[in-house]
Amino acid sequence: MGSLQAAEMNEDEYTKLIRLMNSARVVIDNDACEDATVVQVDCVKEHMLLLQLVQVLSDLNLVIKKAYITSDGNWFMDVFKVTDREGKKLRDQKILDYLKTSLESTACSLTSRRSSVGILPSKDYTLLELTGTDRPGLLSEVCAVLNDLNCNVVKAEVWTHNTRTAAVVQVTDKSTHGAIEDPNHLSKIKALLFNVLKGDSDSSAAKMTVSVGLTHAERRLHQLMLDDRDNEHSVVAEKVKKKSSTQVTVLNCSDRDYTVVTVRSKDRPKLLFDTLCALTDMQYSVYHGTVDAGNSEAYQVLLLDCLMIVLTGSYLGSAKTYIGTQEHYIRPSDGQPVSSEAERRRIIQHLEAAIERRAYEGLELELHAEDRIGLLSDITRIIRECGLSIRRAEITTEGGKAMDTFYVSEMSGNLIDAKAVDSLRKQIGHAALKVKRSPALSPKPPEKANATTFLDGLFKAWWFQGFITSYFLNFR
């Protein structure tokens, strides 16, 4: 028994020694670059590490302008040039300190990083994970059920892709303002929400889980939709693919024993994060790479354990549309290029789906209002009654304020009538709801001038009367 305790003690001391020897080094420099903040991370290389570092930057809404990624043996060295969403350097010392602490905490963790996303225990929230067949008004129905069951939605992320939908929702008990602990209450929530998700479809098309804790919503949504096989709904996928700006090709490069994967898509925020999510779920690790997203071109090269990625982009005119192109050189764990058609399709589908899940460009609605019980249920109901369908949603409450973003489309797929938007703002409140124009919104028809009114006004104008009188006098 004593020898076992001694072994455990030695193992603990060994772990501490390894942690001390391999401690991460994070340096943030605002002087090294004229137009960006330079973030350098040196640490032990681990699977998923690059994804988690990029996740930290994405969660702070930072834009990666350039990055240099390399590894030497088991050591990982990354340099990121980042700005805020306005393209400015990071000047707030609190943000800089938080960024440094978060990156050090992420890089220093020597625990095993699994491909799945864990749920952190919490007594403050109940976590709901939902997947099912998308249909108009589904989110409104879910919110109505939660409201009737005395659940308050604190935070939520909702994605739709290829007729499928997934959501990660944090709720609290209206009475206790904490996690829902009553087993009967939880069972009722699960049963009713499952019936809503199922709708008229087969029960196998819907999934519903309830747990107490927190998770990274965006990372988890990628996995929920992947598990739901949103990339395999071929009938709708073919229709969506015709409209999609993402193009993926897979070719063998036999002289170097690589398989070349090229991806062309619009550049946008969090594109690198979404791409790394797909690669991580396919069990690829990045070894070397460069990322360059300038004003007119985005260029990324990532060399993986069995994959190299090249991302380039071109600027298209005054519309400020960026097209990103990715070229991947992949090699499976057996060291041979991808040879099967099934594996080629798998790579194409996974990358296309990961990029397109967040790429919806419908009408964007931003809600800023005082939070109250049932607010989300009312808002989603009004959106549904105005003939609009929610394609993606980001729902947050903080300090008694509701800050929600909805991406909506017309239920039948047509352009959104401006009258529907006017009705929406009138019911919710012009001050509370901000509408961002987009191609999804049909322009208002120009008002036709009344010829009679125009001529009456013209003849009554003093300057026109004087002109007519002068003209006839001179003519005579």
Automatic annotation (TrEMBL):
Key words of the record: Repeat
Stored PROSITE patterns: ACT
Domain ACT: 38-117, 127-204, 364-440
Mitochondrion in keyword set: no
An MF annotation (GO) of this entry: amino acid binding
InterPro entries xrefs: ACR1-12, ACT-like_dom_sf, ACT_dom
Function: Binds amino acids.
Name assigned to this protein: ACT domain-containing protein ACR
Organism of derivation: Musa balbisiana
